[in-house]
Amino acid sequence: MICVSALMALSMVASCKAPDSLKYDLEDIVASSFISEPENVSQWQHYVYMFSGEDCSFFSGPGLPGDMEVSGMHLDVSGETAVAIACASDDNIGTGVMTDGLPSGVYSLKVNDILADVPEIWHGRGYVSGGILMSPMTMDLQFSFVGLPDGIIESVNVGIPYISDCYSISDGMFSIGKAGVGGRSFNVSPSSEGKVYRMFPMASDVTEWTFAFSLDCYDGESISGAFNVTAPLAAGSSNTVSVDCSSLAEEGACSVMLSTRNYGSGSTRTWLKKVELEQRQPENRYYDVDVLGSDGEWKSLNPSYALCSNAFRYHTQIWNDWDNSKKLRDTMSFVSVIDDFSGPVKVRVASKKPFSTVEIRPTSYGIVPERIDDRTIEFTVRDYSHRMLSVEFDSDRYHNLMVFGDRPDPDRPDPGNIPAGMKYYGPGEHEVGWITLKEGETLYIDEGATVYAKINVTGDNTAIRGRGVLSGAHLPHTGNIYASGYQLIETNANKVGTRQYFTAEGITVIDSPSWTFSIYNTDHVLIDNIKMICWILNGDGIDLCSVDDGVVKNCFLRSYDDCITLKVNHVSKVDTKNIRLQGNLIWADYARGIVIGPESGWDTGGSISDVIVEDCIILEYPTKLLETSGTYNCDGAGLSISQYPATGHTTSGTTSGIVCRNIIIDKIGTSGRPFVIWQKSGQSGALVDNVLFSNISIDCPDGTAPCHIYTNGGKITGLVMENVKYNGVPMQDSGKLVIDGTDVDITYR
Known about the structure:
The chain is mainly beta. Helices cover about 5% and strands about 50% of the residues. The protein folds into 4 domains: about 1-135, no CATH class; about 140-275, Immunoglobulin-like, CATH 2.60.40; about 285-405, Dextranase, N-terminal (Dex49a from penicillium minioluteum complex, domain 1, Sandwich); about 440-749, Single-stranded right-handed beta-helix, Pectin lyase-like (Pectate Lyase C-like, 3 Solenoid).
């Protein structure tokens, strides 16, 4: 409430003119000891009216004599009615008559465009003795979405009828003045939750009305409903339209509610209607994708979507948001293109919204899209080696489209004649829960299939194959600080003995509740052509722990935590060695991309040795891990050699025989770092030996962190930098390699 106490000194002046031309002679208008809400109301535009009988006897407005700097007045003249109006601006409103001496009925405040917001307006009226108390004249409307599952409701549509566009200044009545238009429609998506819409209240004669709404779903369906409201939306009211899906799983319905709270009232009135809403996954959420077939006809594909962590923005809030109730994660899209790739493949992508720029990465592939219109592009995948791509509109890497090209599986089984020892899942969705692979068994997830399950491998000679999707989305995502859900694919959950010969090939894996591939004490491992998108905090992609003879090749891996990590920890104990990481695309949203370590055995136990990382591309490493560590002295990077001892030990085992060659760091985020070699402090005699970095091309925007080497008392010997360039400049000349440690044996060539 605003109490106005501006004092006006007014006096009548004799005149020989006709009575309707009598004016007040204005002396000083003094504002003193006023209290205002909002704070900046004294800078608003103010209008002051006095009505005597049927006429306006006094008017003052912006730019006129007597223009006030506060939102009302205390007039020392008795017997006349005063009206004060304060407007935050004159956007979308008009006052019409700007003079006094006319009949009171012609004075009004009008909305120019009822479909657009008006500024905040406060008003007050009363007899001039005793002052004028101000209150808000406009009303607010907001939208709220509660417990909304991802990918079901795209937007809510509502209509608010009987919105006035005219306020009569003399009698304070609101009316509809433009040929009875009197309504306003809203289409609001969850991303606009909390936005405030401001308008005039309903017409003064409204007592009961109908609230109509519809819910637009991503699959194209629209669900409509309506209910009666037994009170008008009044001046100064705060109103909220809520879509509440918190009981959707139990009831199969959601509630659409309208709540209103009048100005100065502590109570809220609510009206609602429940509507049936089937739980469903959307299709084509962000993009339409077509591929030009060899017959010259365009074939429509069906993009899928997956949650991805945007910890770059949300890290300080995201730890306890396991169910994404705060909507802190983003949703990217992916599409599978099955083709023999005997020749170039042409792809068309239509975005659901217009865009300004588009980029297709890896940039080293040199794919330049052709812009068809403000929503559509076409581009050509030249050959099978360039089959995995990120399409990024307006530099948005958290709603990007991944294109995953695949050849048909030559070993695809006949669905009508599944061989013994194979667990087969064909097209469609399959709620399985838990799958155990025993000695010699294969899990086959066919093209078009999505299997919701955890995989537990208990025998040797096992495999997971196919062109379908394995999802952990329906498994519990739990934890306190660290995720405590299932590790999605485990080859040796009990860590007993050593498994032999495990293969994973061709499938797409999304939404793991913890580590995705937990490969413990397993020798002869092949992970080939896996596509992975996982968001969970401390959810690694592929963990090779005490593995001998492991190959990870031709994969796309996107995760919150380490995409690929090689470890010897207190559980796995024995060496990790003979590892080949070849031709992978790496996208780390927070922790590390490829990391040799960090758990690196101990000086009298396991070690990491004979590792080749080649022909890999680091597509993203945007993290603020460097900042949250308080210093660059940490192991976060797109490519990392990290050495600290297994739990319970003081010194790491030796890390040796590491070759990183033909690596591209492709425009990672400016808060990221291309590579680091890091030894944890407090170790006695930690050693990294015989490391070759060869033909490494770092292409980073200005401001990206340099590369670092930290020994922290450890020792690095036999380190060779061969043709390593940072933005085209040899590393040794770039000023982009910082060495912090005295015991580093490094050679450049």
